[in-house]
Structures are given as structure tokens and as C-alpha cells.
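BUG-379 | component: ligand-complex export | severity: low

The export step for zinc ion jobs runs without errors, but we want the raw record kept on the ticket for reference. Input record follows.
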Amino acid sequence: MIAREEVERVVARNSKPGSPMLSVYLDVDPTQEVNRQRGFEPALKNMLRTIEGQLNSDRERKVFAGNALRVMRFVSGYKPTAQGLVMFGREADGFFWHRELHAPLRNDAHWDDSPHLRPLLETMDDYERYGVILTDKARARLFTVFLGEIEEHSGVFTADDVRHTKTVGTDHWRSQTHFERTSDLHALWHLKQVAEKMVLLADARRFDRLVLAGPVEATTELERLLPKRLLARLAGSMALSVEATGLQVLEATRRFERPALREMENDLVKKLIATAAKKVQADTGLLATLNALNKNRVWRLLYAEGFAPQGRRCADCTALMGEGQPVCDHCGGNTEPVGDLIERIVERVVGVGGKVEAVRGPAAELLKEAGSIGAFMRF
Ligand SMILES: [Zn+2]
């Protein structure tokens, strides 16, 4: 399963001036007729040829050819089991990274000093990370679901945990629950442990939302026991055998993917605008965002998908500037135009461990009124 930390590691290898990286996004969706005939191979060759045609020196063409060969070799031996394939490579330091994505991807290739991360990050933002708790009266299993992949975290709920968890004050107990009425106190006690442990897990595993699964009586009871802040993240409950396989859990939770995210984006943009109005921990608009970025203060960046402003970069301190700024705000150095400004911004935010969200639809419309971009600050 792809993790944010992994993308951050790719970013950490970014920007080696004079030593470009090849970034490739390939639509390999096996349900497409053309891909059943391995049509993604000629598509890849075409993209690589296009880049090659734009190179200026023999030296650069030679370096590129080595990178192109690496990617083509990998793809020629590749059997698609997902919709998209992402690859980043730089032969100069033997770096090659690839992942399959269970999400639609558009063909895209870049040859640049830094990895072209935007489509990957946007795809990751399109999907929420779900925690699934599968439990009955005696057992509990934890799964995370992200981008069409599922992972089971074994050993999360162990007998050992239960033994060492301190007893909860009786004031937290809700009286006359189903389990108490049926005198199944051990089951109630077990579910209480699960509910408590969930609070820690939700933070550690970075769930956006939570799904409860298992026999109805167990999920109903667990829902009653969940603390409020987790209830707010509850996507739903479903009946499922506690013995279900990962694949069965994935299939069953598919329906919780996605639509809620749009609501969340809307709320997030509203919150950004309201916070920015107070001028404390957020700001909106390109110049204010760049200013915060250059001070490494951006904690969470939001921009309207498709927003593609022009910009400049300081040749001395690499600070990013707006289009009309020939001189750097920070060091007084000269600035030069940069290609994809948003890409440079995103890269920098991710590089310092910040979050990035490309918002769409109504959330994007709302954000456009505030300059199409903004950020929550670190301090
Ligand atoms: Zn500067």
C-alpha cells in the first residue's frame, strides 16, 4: 500500500540540478481493449520519443536514453494488475521507483531536475484512508484501506494489550446495553478495549474515516462505545464474518470510497477562508501562500485543481516568487521563471512533511474566490 512517507522519500531525492529524473505515468488498465493488446507499450515509447525530440545536446540525449531504456525494460516485463503504473528513475544514482495504482491515471511523462509528483499526490488526495475494525464478541482485527488496496495489521489487538489496559472507570459505562442485558459482560469488556484502542490507532494509522464490520450486535455495541471524536469519523457499519479475508473486507467496504471526501473538502476550504480572515494561522492567495512557503510555515496547502499560475524562483536561495517579482523578497537575488509553479510549491510542502490537497467541484469554486490557493500555517 502506498504511503505518504514513501512519496516523501522520492521527494527527498529531488532537485539535483543537471541530473534530471524521468517521471512516467502510464494507464495500464487491463479492462481497456487497447491495454489487453499491451497498447501501453507503444504509448510509452511515443511519450519518450517526444521528450527525446526536445533535448538539445548529445550528452543529454545519451543520459536520457539510459533512463528511457530502464523504464521500457521494466514495462516490457510488466503484467498489469492495476489501472495505473507510476515510475520515477534516475540512472545516474541507480534510483528506480515504481508503484501500481488502483485508480485511473492519464499517460504523462516528464524529464526534469525533480520528480513530477503532482498526478500522484492528486490521486492520493482523491481517496481517503479507511480504518476497518472487524470484530465480534471475542476477537478484533484491524485493516486499512487506501487507493483500492487493503492491509491487515496483525497483532494490533492482542491478549497482551487487553491484559495491560487499565480498568476504565464505571462512569464511562453505559447501563442496560444489549450485552449487559444478556449478561455477556466479557464481550462488552472486550469491545470497550477495542473502542479505547481505536483512539490511538486512528492517530497512528492516519485514518480519514472508520468502518465497523462484524456481526450486527458487535458493531452496534462498538458504535455505542466509541468516543465522540471517532464517531465523527465513522463512515458506516456493515455485517461481516469476523473470519472474512482481506479481499472480502475490501469488496465489502468499496461503497464507502470517495463521495464523503467532497463534503470534507468543502468544509476544509470554508475553514481555511474563515481562519485566513482572522490573519492568524492561515492565509489565502498566491503571494501570501508563497511568502509562508518560503518561510517553511506551510502545514497544509489547498489549491483549486487546474490552478496554473506563472511564477519565478530565486537563483540564489531558491525562494519561489510571483510573476512580477524580478528580485527575491528574501535575499535580494535575481529570480528566473519556473515551469510549473504549483508543482514546485507542492514539492516543497511535501518535502517538509506538509499536506497537500487539490480540491475540486464546489470546494474549488469557493477557493477560487479567495485566490485559488491558500494554506494553514505551522505556527
Ligand atoms: Zn533569494
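Assignee comment: Attached the raw record above. The chain has three domains: 4-125, 130-257, 261-377.
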